[in-house]
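Recap from last week: sequence in, structure out.
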Amino acid sequence: MFKIKQVVQTQEESEKTYILPKLIWYPSVIRNEIVPLCQGRVFDRTESIDLGFKQKILSPIPEFKYTSKTFSEECGIRAIEIAQMAKDQGKKILVTCSGGMDSTSVIAAFMMYTDAEIELTYSQSAIDEWPEFHAYCLKHPRITRYISFVNMPFLLEALALEDDHIIITGDPGDLIFGSKLYREDQTVWLPDGTTGAWQMDHWAKPWEGVPAHHRDLLQPIVDKCPVDIENNYDLTWWLGFCMKFQLTETRLYMAARKYVNIVNFFTSDNIQNWSMSNSYAVKCPNNDWDNLKYEAKKHLHLWFPDETVWAQVKRDSLKSVWTEAMHKVLYDWVITLSAETKLAITNSHIERGLFVGVRFDEECQKTIDGYDHETQMITIPQELTIRGEGGIEVEGMKDAESLFFIRGQMFPVSHITSDYEFEKWPRHKIMHRVWQHVKLNGGY
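Predicted structure tokens:
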């Protein structure tokens, strides 16, 4: 059986708190089973279980106060709050739009409830996902600029230096309505690189279909829920609300590898209280997954009164908007470069003492050779796996010192301290750096 053992913190490490921990600090059952379930680092906003490290919670769960306000009303309150924040700080508002119902709800909130101008990041997949909504945005006079989402990691770096924007995300909108924990259509990426899936009935009574040892581990978190849990939908909503919330909050920090002025729209106390005030019957009416986020659809229809609103369903928007798109666009760019151009860039690096020991032309060929046309992803060569960092111990794997970059489980020793110190994060590779210059600066 493939199993990664826990690496216990040093005395110095144990004295700090962390916004994002090393992956290797988790106790074995969390590392091998709960991390894949959550598709990334696990947190506990109730602070009820031992995760192997001390957390710095970015958005604590507020004291529960029932609200009868609608989802749209709460979005309006949040948009007004952020618009005033931007005005007070003299900054522009940039909304990162994946095309899903969370980020589009953010756009609708700013347009309906404030007079603020906003800029948007967009992608071709977001346009393809909902072309009618995109066309509507293009006509709006208060949406002033569109930026390709594919350039987001480098754009974040540039925006951090300029310090004239507040970057607004649609996170953690999924966790407000209910996560995909244990859902049959959730691909679970296991530590050995294989995938699995669950077959839970989300309308069955709580805990039905959950392994007994998961229940034993997670029951203390569930005991902290301030509202009734009626079925597995409510159960997995609460678990995601507590365990995945901060993972989504830190997503853009991880992309930038530095602190950036980010506001996650759905973290406000009011919106969290809306989430706790409404059960599965409101979040996913008639026990129909196509109705998931129905309140978001009602909100969107107020601003964009088009019938296509009702056809929107929950999708893994970021995968197509960012990960897959970034790989494909990078590959498409690389294959257009002539041998002369690649050599000229390589010689330029040598002359200026940049990227010592790495040749751009050779990296181009590795990118081309490693591109999987079926998945439209650039595969990671063996030499880029992490070997032996942090004393990783693995059982049941031929190469016990290797840990492959499995989705949601990358960079096992990378972490972010409570002071936003980014430690042991690999920098973006030479290919991406050159691409950054071309895409953002118009040339090299």
